[in-house]
Prior knowledge:
The structure holds two protein chains of two kinds. The longest helix of chain A has 30 residues, at 95-124. In chain A, β4 (167-174) and β5 (180-185) form a beta hairpin. Chain A contains eight helices and eight strands. Chain A has a five-stranded mixed β-sheet with strand order 2-8-7-4-5, with no helix packed on it. In chain A, strands 1-3-6 form a three-stranded mixed β-sheet, with no helix packed on it. Chain A is of the alpha/beta class. In chain B, α1 (7-14) crosses α3 (43-62), α2 crosses α3 and α5 (112-131) crosses α8 (161-190). By secondary structure, chain B is an all-alpha fold. Helices cover 73% and strands 0% of the residues of chain B. The chains are: A alpha/beta, B mainly alpha. Chain A binds chain B through residues 10, 12-17, 19, 29-30, 32-37, 39-57, 62-65, 68, and chain B through 1-3, 28, 30-31, 33-35, 37-38, 74-75, 77-78, 82, 103-104, 121-122, 124-126, 128-131, 133-134, 137, 140-141, 143-145, 150, 161, 164-166, 168-169, 171-172, 175-176, 179.
Amino acid sequence: MDHGQALELQAAERYLLGELSTEEAAEFESHFFECTDCCVGVELGLDFVRHAKAVLAEPSPAPSRATHQPETRKSRIDWWSALTDVRAWLQPASYLPAAAAVLLASVVIYQSGVIIPGLHRALTEPQAPLQYSLGAISRGEAVKIDPPATTPITLAFDLPPDQNFSSYRCVIHRKSDGKEFVEKTAPPRAGEPVTVYLPSASVQNGDYVLSVYGVDAEGAPGPRISDYSFEVVGR
Amino acid sequence: MDHAFDDQFLRALRDRDPGAEGRLVSTFSVPVRCKLRGLLRSPELIQDASQETFLRVLRYFQIGKTLDNPANLPGFVLTVCRNTGLEYLRAYTRHDQIPPDMPEQADERNSPEEGAVEGERREMVRRILADLREKDRNLLRRVFLEEEDKDRVCADLNVTRDYLRVLLHRARLRLRSEIERGASAGKGATG
């Protein structure tokens, strides 16, 4: 075996690891008795293995790279390890905060995806409300209206003659749950009806009564002027 | 071949020339020690077997024997060394054996200077190990300290036998560079 063959065969490492056959080991020994380079290589390898065994046998493990890092780096690693530790997430102590986090996330997603865009559209996009005319209760049955689900409506009605209030207060009462919507409106021009705007979200199926009250110039509530009845269907 | 030996050198050994004897010992002390470390565990036995090897080689030439081809001197020393080592191995196998898993004991006959060199070299190896990845350190621990089956260890750690050889090769080169750096630093300090 010459030096080139020894290098190609990684003979020194194989010799140290006991990977050479008896014949190969004898050949390599004959070589390193003549070759200083290979001999020094074997001796260094033997030294490394001997000292490594002593160091690795010590009770405290050899310091790892992590211990040489600054404390901030270690803290960051611990924080990340805790966050990504699946077993920790499966502990009962994690259930309550995890459930709260999921609930909060659901609310945020619903608000961001549904409520806020709807409000944004209602404020910024032009709306074309459907208008319905109401007659006073005394004139007959309740008017049935069937607006599409996403369309706001406008209720138009005539006031009794000789009403001279500076404004009017319209209270829309839903009979099923007693909920009321209040809107103030200015006096209509001569010959025109009063109109009350209802956003689409406020309109649900059911019977409603719209009561109109007069308000004087000083803002004091006046008497009830008239009632109008209507029924929403098909929403 | 790094060493050239001729008839004149063999005659000098026969004539007990101190220069030739010194050259023989300095040339072959490292390979003899390497060979004996493969056979014997105890540093004391290695030291004794090494001295016995050189004693036998010198005696061979001093009683008038010689070699047909002086270039065969390294092979001759290796043969004597191997035989001596095996004799020591057989002789001491009958007596108390050091358990295979017992850490090697420090040679108590080391001089203070040798002890310092040993300590310094161990610190170098400690640094080399500390710079290794945990996986590589674990690989070396299982192969050399726990002497587990190498194929199984490599399979467990998902590495090849080539990887193990390269790891050892790099560690050996690193130790050499650390020693050379320490030597140059020592020269700088004294110079």
